[in-house]
User: Which sequence fits this backbone?
């Protein structure tokens, strides 16, 4: 019996103690007609060896080549120590730290994480994570709605240059509470169309992403000030890695952003088909009681020694039930563990160097690809590590052809932005080598010539 | 010697770093205007690689975990997390996959998801399963959003209330509210079953649905479940099954047969994926016929052995996307690996042995003089103990028992939940623990009971042998210290 | 500075404390002419990312296909838990357990290991490991030489059916102490030629391998009794996995073997190009003081609690120096850790099932391959999980051709046994599937037809 | 509560097992005669997978290790073991390689070995390197065997003695004997250098060679090394360099320049591969011109970018094969990974910072009132402290200091080695430890020194806070209990 340690003798001893004849008897309160016996849809059990044989074959089948896709998930190097430590049973097989004294490892680590995220974003506080960047944006919107008492409207402005999946997810989360999202269109230069803002009425919050979905740098100072002047919250969606290089949301405009969210994947989390990763959520001190999710605080034990514990639990569903700030319970603890270790290893300098190298490699990639006749940059502003290219033909077709050359060429944008059927979003992280870039260039040239 | 609690920040020094992790920089990017650049570096720790490894290795040792201890946390299903499943999800091919890789180079991964969808359909009896929810609570949200979409699609717009038994987990009412519903709580009778008279009085044209677990968080199986589902269905409401307790009945009862229309499962409980110190989890949703059109995307479809993503184009009535990519893919792979190793025989045994362990423990504890909250009921995979008597007679609370248990090297059961039972423990041993471990737990509790009589201070000031003594939660909340600052 | 945590300030503080001007000053006792400055043969340092990039490319270049080679190193399934636990820093980065109180983890584990190996081999005691199976045979030979006081000769008989590399290694180790190895030739049936024994004079020990290098089962009872009658020690070289199924050396003949050695690789150690693995060495109680290497004993602490410690250290070089039983110091501790965990997970039953499945799969493999015209079994006796096939042409050539089909076809025997140029030693472990066996068959057929 | 020390056997029960590890058996093999089959199953533990994971996780926590503590064990070079190097060696392509795979599908692996050979040649100044030795002691054996082969090849058959300074590690004399030599020990002068007069008196036509380390195990650099090598060479002997202390001079001095003909390196020391609780290690040998023909096989050769194994066919005078396959390949890969990350600049720094740390520690300890064995000498990467005074005046020995240090969460330095210095500690901090860690060590020793004065019993009965109290070694050796038996 896999994973069940009972011997036949054990079962007899236990049944005798209980005073039951058989295990079946223990289910005697369940109405007979509810009892099932067949599970035909579940295959017969196999050994770990056979299971791993099957899974290995499937994993190997998907090895696709060199990755030039970004779009919210990035192929960064992760120091070997990160997951060697994260996968320790003491971290991986613990529950939520409800018994603080027996969970100081996890608790202190999350406190350190909160501190790092606050430092990175330039905000005062951070929670202990939400599910992912996209759902985190939904939580941020609801949080703004609760916290911004000055504005009566239930409208949130969201830039069309925010990741399409983030916009979709946030709307699907927030709409049940009557939140309405209005989209600020994208201008021809790939940035938020600031002129469209003039027609906007009262809004609770404005959502802007930096770098935006196209990899471009928005004029976040202007956006932040615009929001501030109207009493709207500025919700920033950011790539945490970029913050080692770019101005942090806490310093945007004259007052800074109010709420910052995003996905932690670039901080030591493997792409792993997109999950698990984690969403982070940071804000100003004064908003902390509207923050969803867990928060760790430092306190003292009865001998006066420092220690860590879950705090502000009155915000949470297990205490406040229907009146909680969110229903979130289990979050993404283990990924936060990885990210904390990752940030410790990289330090501010290390992250900055990675960020700089990403910019440099993307620059090289773009230079190489636009050397091919018919391939052009679609937008020209400053960018981080992603870039939209116009191809001389349908980009989805080209991406399929590139697969034969072992190249994951990027994300075709037609599905997300009508009219961009020939556009391709490409990305080069610090891992991409000159050889790989040249390989991409020559493969693309072949595809386009054929 | 107590290990100290220096944070990673305090170990740092200006200019120190894990230098093997420094990649050659590309230099300050010429294309980015000065005004967009960061002026002051973020205050991250500056530490060597050895310092990082040592710090987090030692921190980890300050945790209890399944790998170290018996961890009978009720409603959490702290069972063994198979290392083989971790190995499967950690295969380079899976870890290195970009979520937006074309389907042509994703067949292995998609096949895994498809197989898992099918297995989960079978064990719950549901017609369709979507794997996207990233934890139980998100599954609840998605489930209730589907209930809402269903009523709305029918033009049945007056239904604005969700019923919830008062023993329910906090996520249930919180979810209902997030989905724009009011919550009405329904009481239990003395035996722990839902008070059906109260339920009948509560249902009406305003009822969108009822959320409940079965077995309930009181550790008993709701015997009148078919009557309850009849009542709710007759009133036009739908039934939501909170699958957090599915471990109790896995392979024994299918939620569909009890009359549930929609459910979530906690794969990080029933399907043995690790809890990670608070996540990640996965909370796939399953639905019956009526809610099929509303399932969230992405899902995986199959034709002629070719797998593909199903999106809103295929499922136009879907409630849409609730995560950036495919939810917690790595957890889904672990759950599949576990299911494959268990197989159908193994599935049947989960509920059986989880129940055997709980009933054995309940019986032994009762004979040892502890008070069961529902002494006349069968325990399911978990059961409730109450320390009301001890609190009254000896001045020691359930919390004191819990803290003292830690000194015995056993994680405390869930305390003060369900809220309606005073001074309680919710105890869930799971099927993967041995008889000897259960006996050791009884001995520990009995020893603490004796201490409570002879030396109650020992409990009141517990724990004694952990990295910290009892912590001051009030101070934590009053004098908020949420981020490290150089002092 | 990779791995060096010193800041410039630190260095100044430290030099001041020492009273030195520069780090260079600290080398002032070293004659100037000895100081070097160039290390041109060492490349410039790279980051972990770049190093892993290079190493990954090299590792990937060697992925060769399905393994049907055995010959002392076997492709078994290793439960995932084995290395997850073994690689824990507490095991991996500890030193030899010299401070017993701070090393109870490793010490208790080795005690458990000794117990398991004694059980598996049917012997009384085990040491804590030697380098590998081959060098272990060298140690066993020297040990027999020291212990067998009855026999004056310095001759050890060794079967030609013992792994050729074991024979070579053992001779290279033992010859400096005047040990002479005499080879008992192999008979036409692939077993020790017992008739050749008649001519042998006085010998200190006899070495026999079970299953032998050709995968065949020797008549170990007869060999053991033959040795016993002449006052010679019987040294058994065994595959530990086979002992879950086959009669243990402790039960061979009427008295059993005296010393048992072999390689622990089949017990949870990856093939990993042949190392690190570990050698095991077990013997009768009365020989324990002649055993080389570390041995752990159970004892008590000053409160009377049980604990574990290195014992019988007077045998070892760090105490006894030139009079030690061996010069061995560092052994293969971490592999012993893995093997102990492996044996705990498998249990006697689990190992037996693996062993049985190996036999069954090899049987299927042989049946499939001999269905090809011209392919024949060379020997016909009972076998474990290896078999010698005769091919219709040079086996080395065929093995090269099989590579194109993703098949590591086995070990060509010509190099090791002159006259066996067409012979191939094949192996199928429990991991080999029916599909893989069929793939081998069809590939071989194609190669032989071409 | 003390954690108990039940063995894995005591956790077992007949019929229990980690069932997911059971592969479908092929049935009792028909082809194997009954007489060859095992009758009684071996008494291995019968335990569940969770029991195994929990038992060994908890056992691991009873170890000190670099990842947990400062571990200044002299002559052992307990520096940080980079996780990246572990990652490199754990790549599936390397782990899954069969050692006898044809060269055509082994080019990646062979290239790694070749690169390592070249790097090791450069850092030692040697002409050839073979990677096969599986630890330092096997390297010594192989080195001395080559010395022997050299003399024999020249027909110089009378040389039957190896000289060894009396501070040498036990492996040196033990090796010489295993290679069939007699050992003659040579003393040191008061400053820790070899007594060259004694050496001159000792050499002669019987001298096959001299084995020594430099810096010596006394933690000082042998200043007259060129004189020593001259004396030995003049007598027709060869010089063996025991590279266990190479960390002290890595990038600063090449053994070839000191006059050594042959050496081994401990990659598990100088090249940062983990010690594994007692191995595996790797002890590659390097040789100068004269011994080139005798290097052990297999080695790796290269032509036109194609790598190949070199065996006795290529090296007919080789002393042959000393391991079944290519030694401890996984350790060699780790060492290469480490060397690549260090690079040439990093190599230079190893000796520098190891020396800086040792001298700082020596200086601070001396000022704190501890006695250095060689106060007038520079420390190298390690140094010797002697507690003779404390032993005389307070009755506490070096061992008592060592055991008490464990309570302070610091692994004890090497004790009672080198043997010629009474009541000594050999302290090697390594270059990867921080200034703060060194300061903490000084504070701990100073605190223990105060305890020794005020409460010597605290030391004599130490350790107090470890899983066990001080262990009885005498009982262990007298009442041998080497394997578990049901009691
Ligand atoms: C009964 C019950 N319902 C729902 C949940 C929420 O699940 P999750 O934590 O995965 O969001 C829990 C988790 O503890 C639970 O116990
Ligand atoms: C000076 C010295 N020489 C030789 C050795 C032997 O090396 P190994 O343990 O790798 O066999 C050691 C190991 O401690 C040593 O310190």
Assistant:
């Amino acid at each position: 019996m896999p994973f069940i340690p009972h011997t036949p003798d054990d079962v007899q001893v236990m049944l005798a103690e209980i005073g039951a004849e058989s295990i079946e008897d223990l289910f005697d309160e369940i109405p007979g007609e509810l009892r099932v016996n067949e599970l035909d849809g579940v295959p017969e059990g196999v050994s770990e060896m056979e299971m791993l044989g099957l899974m290995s074959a499937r994993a190997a089948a998907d090895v696709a080549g060199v990755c030039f896709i970004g779009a919210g998930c990035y192929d960064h190097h992760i120091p070997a120590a990160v997951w060697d430590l994260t996968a320790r049973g003491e971290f991986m097989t613990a529950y939520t730290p409800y018994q603080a004294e027996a969970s100081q490892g996890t608790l202190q680590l999350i406190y350190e994480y909160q501190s790092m995220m606050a430092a990175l974003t330039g905000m005062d506080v951070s929670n202990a994570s939400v599910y992912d960047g996209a759902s985190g944006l939904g939580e941020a919107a609801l949080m703004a709605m609760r916290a911004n008492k000055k504005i009566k409207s239930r409208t949130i402005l969201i830039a069309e240059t925010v990741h399409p999946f983030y916009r979709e997810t946030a709307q699907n989360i927030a709409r049940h509470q009557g939140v309405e999202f209005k989209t600020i269109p994208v201008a021809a230069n790939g940035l938020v169309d600031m002129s469209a803002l003039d027609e906007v009425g009262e809004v609770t919050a404005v959502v802007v992403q930096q770098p935006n979905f196209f990899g471009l740098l928005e004029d976040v100072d202007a956006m932040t000030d615009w929001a501030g002047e109207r009493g709207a919250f500025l919700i920033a969606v950011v790539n945490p890695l970029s913050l080692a290089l770019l101005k942090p949301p806490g310093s945007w405009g004259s007052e800074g952003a109010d709420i910052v969210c995003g996905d932690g994947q670039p901080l030591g989390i493997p792409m792993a088909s997109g999950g698990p990763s984690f969403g982070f959520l940071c804000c100003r001190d004064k908003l902390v009681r509207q923050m969803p999710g867990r928060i760790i605080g430092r306190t003292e034990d009865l001998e006066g020694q420092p220690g860590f514990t879950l705090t502000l639990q009155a915000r949470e569903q297990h205490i406040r039930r229907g009146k909680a700030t969110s229903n979130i319970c289990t979050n993404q603890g283990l990924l936060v563990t990885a990210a904390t270790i990752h940030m410790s290893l990289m330090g501010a300098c290390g992250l900055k160097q990675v960020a700089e190298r990403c910019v440099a490699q993307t620059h090289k990639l773009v230079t190489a690809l636009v050397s091919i006749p018919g391939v052009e940059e679609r937008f020209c502003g400053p960018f981080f590590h992603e870039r939209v290219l116009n191809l001389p033909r349908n980009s989805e077709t080209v991406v399929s052809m590139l697969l034969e050359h072992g190249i994951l060429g990027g994300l075709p944008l037609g599905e997300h932005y009508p009219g961009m059927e020939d556009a391709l979003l490409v990305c080069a992280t610090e891992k991409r080598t000159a050889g790989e870039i040249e390989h991409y260039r020559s493969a693309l040239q072949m595809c386009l010539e054929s | 010697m107590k290990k100290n609690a220096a944070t990673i920040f305090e170990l740092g020094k200006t200019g120190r770093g894990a230098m093997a992790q420094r990649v050659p920089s590309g230099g300050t990017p010429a294309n980015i205007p000065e005004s967009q650049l960061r002026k002051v570096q973020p205050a991250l720790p500056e530490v060597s690689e050895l310092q990082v490894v040592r710090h987090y290795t030692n921190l980890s040792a300050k945790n209890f975990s399944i790998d170290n201890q018996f961890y009978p946390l009720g409603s959490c299903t702290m069972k063994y997390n198979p290392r083989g499943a971790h190995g499967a999800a950690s295969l380079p091919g899976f870890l290195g996959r970009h979520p937006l890789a074309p389907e042509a180079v994703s067949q292995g991964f998609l096949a895994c998801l498809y197989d898992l969808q099918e297995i989960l359909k079978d064990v719950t009896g549901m017609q369709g399963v979507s794997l996207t929810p990233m934890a139980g609570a998100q599954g609840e949200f998605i489930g209730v959003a589907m209930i809402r979409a269903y009523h709305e699609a029918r033009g049945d717009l007056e239904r604005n209330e969700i019923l919830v038994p008062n023993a329910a987990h906090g996520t249930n009412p919180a979810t209902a509210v997030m989905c724009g519903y009011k919550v009405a709580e329904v009481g239990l009778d003395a035996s722990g079953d839902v008070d059906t008279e109260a339920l009948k009085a509560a249902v009406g044209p305003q009822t969108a649905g009822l959320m409940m677990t079965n077995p309930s968080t009181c550790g008993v199986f709701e015997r009148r479940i078919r009557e309850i589902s009849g009542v709710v269905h007759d009133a036009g409401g739908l039934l939501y099954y909170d699958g957090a307790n599915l471990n109790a009945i896995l392979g024994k009862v299918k939620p569909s047969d009890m009359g549930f229309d929609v459910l979530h499962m906690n794969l990080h409980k029933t399907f043995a994926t690790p809890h990670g110190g608070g996540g990640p989890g996965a909370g796939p949703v399953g639905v019956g016929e009526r809610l099929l059109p509303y399932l969230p995307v992405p899902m995986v479809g199959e034709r002629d052995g070719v797998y593909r993503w199903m999106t809103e184009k295929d499922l136009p009535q879907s409630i849409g996307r609730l995560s950036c990519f495919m939810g917690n893919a790595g957890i889904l792979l672990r759950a599949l690996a576990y299911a494959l190793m268990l197989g159908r025989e193994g599935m049947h045994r989960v509920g059986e042995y989880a129940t055997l362990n709980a009933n054995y423990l309940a019986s032994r504890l009762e004979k040892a003089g502890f008070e069961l909250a529902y002494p006349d009921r069968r325990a399911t995979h978990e059961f409730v103990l109450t320390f009301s008597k001890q609190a009254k007679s000896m001045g020691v609370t359930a919390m004191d028992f819990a803290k003292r248990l830690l000194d015995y090297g056993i994680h405390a059961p869930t305390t003060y939940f369900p809220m309606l039972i005073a001074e309680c423990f919710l105890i869930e041993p799971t099927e993967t623990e041995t008889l000897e471990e259960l006996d050791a737990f009884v001995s520990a509790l009995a020893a603490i009971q004796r201490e409570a009589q002879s030396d109650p201070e020992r409990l009141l000031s517990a724990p004694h042998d952990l990295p910290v003594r009892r912590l001051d939660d009030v101070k934590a909340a009053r004098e908020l210290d949420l981020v490290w600052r150089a002092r």
